[in-house]
Specification:
transmembrane helix, 2 strands, transmembrane, membrane, two-stranded antiparallel sheet, 261 residues
């Protein structure tokens, strides 16, 4: 008679992988469906697609963490050193992603504050920005004001505290060092995917808006020296975060290798 216990254990042991991959797959399907909404303008559809994909990635990682098998040993040893969240997140990319999250919020606040306001059409306020060019008023867009940034703010408000709670739960909960390492890096990657993809698109929107005017001068210099490098940095973070969600151990570095405590 065949013993099915090992097979069941193997399936449960890899349930976290399936959950993470399923989150990404569902995110792609949802993003594809949102991209076909013809009654919504293209820029807003892209915002919805990125937001939905990022939230699905976060949800998949959190589900994977819930499905991760915990050690069932009756006897456990405890370390005298307290476990800290910062010891479980990527030592290099973790602070960078956190900085990108702060800069994204600051960027969206600035663009919302500088966006043009139309009192007669409140629901489309924040789609453009007014500037003075050669003594004449010009309107640039699309601009990531509240019209486009509200879904981004909403996604950050949902995902950020949830991921922080998950990281604290991982750091202070049971599990082997390698297991906690993989779970924490996957959570960091999922949040980083949400943040970096949103910031990448916001930066691209600003760059397109600023370079389409004839007043190249200061605006062109800001775009070249600030927003283009920021876009490249976010593109790198998107790729790193995606790989981390799929396979956390594939992006290990020397400082982040488990077992150093």
């Amino acid at each position: 008679m065949l013993d099915t216990a090992p097979l069941q254990h193997r399936l449960l042991d890899h349930a976290d992988h399936y959950a993470r991959w399923s989150g990404l797959a569902i995110g792609l399907v949802v993003a594809q469906e949102l991209s076909t909404l013809g009654h919504i303008e293209f820029e807003q559809r892209v915002v919805f697609c990125l937001t939905a994909f990022g939230l699905c990635a976060v949800a998949g990682v959190l589900l994977a963490d819930a499905l991760t098998l915990r050690p069932q040993d009756a006897v456990r040893t405890a370390s005298l050193a307290p476990r800290l969240v910062r010891d479980h997140v990527p030592p290099r990319m973790g602070p960078l992603i956190a900085l990108q999250g702060v800069s994204l919020v600051a960027l969206l606040v600035i663009t919302a504050a500088t966006a043009s306001v139309d009192g007669d059409r409140m629901f489309i306020t924040g789609k453009a920005v007014d500037i003075t060019c050669n003594g004449m008023r010009a309107t640039l867009g699309p601009w990531p004001g509240l019209y486009y940034s509200l879904p981004m703010f909403g996604a950050l408000a949902i995902a950020t505290p949830t991921c922080v709670w998950a990281l604290r739960r991982i750091a202070h909960g049971p599990g082997e060092e390698q297991q906690r390492h993989d779970r924490a890096w996957a959570v960091t990657g999922a949040w980083g995917l949400l943040v970096s993809s949103q910031q990448l698109y916001a930066v691209l929107m600003i760059s397109v808006a600023l370079t389409e005017t004839g007043c190249a001068g200061t605006l062109g210099a800001i775009t070249f020296w600030v927003f283009y490098p920021l876009a490249l940095l976010n593109l790198f973070t998107v790729v790193w975060s995606l790989v981390t969600v799929v396979a956390p151990r594939a992006v290990e570095d020397e400082d982040g290798a488990p077992g150093d405590e």
